[in-house]
Give the backbone structure.
Amino acid sequence: MRGLAVAWLGLALAACMAPSPSPVPTISLATAEATAIAQVTSITPVVVRSARLTIYRAENLPGNQVPGDTPVWEVILEGTMPEPCGTPTVSPGPQGTCTNPSELVLIDARDATFIQAVSPYP
């Protein structure tokens, strides 16, 4: 009987020392896509080229907007996203406008918070 109690105690301790699992995403792919689309401005209709569940550090992007182990939806959008471009001039006046055909948007997979966008995205 004592051997059984020792074995049970060993299993209980091993379970307590195991690393805790990563946070499980709570938002759906559809929610992530809709949130990502709401973050961009496009001259043409925006379509989702791809989306995948990953962690922030796997994207290897500049900056540290969130901890590296944060689960994120990576959503790549296609459209005609305008942004300022060209060489700034000394005199006041508008810069040129370029368009990018794609944009990467990262959405927190736990609560649908916008994290970061990168444009253009290959």
In short: DSSP finds two helices and four strands in the chain. Confidence is low (pLDDT under 50) at residues 4-21. Residues 22-118 form one domain.
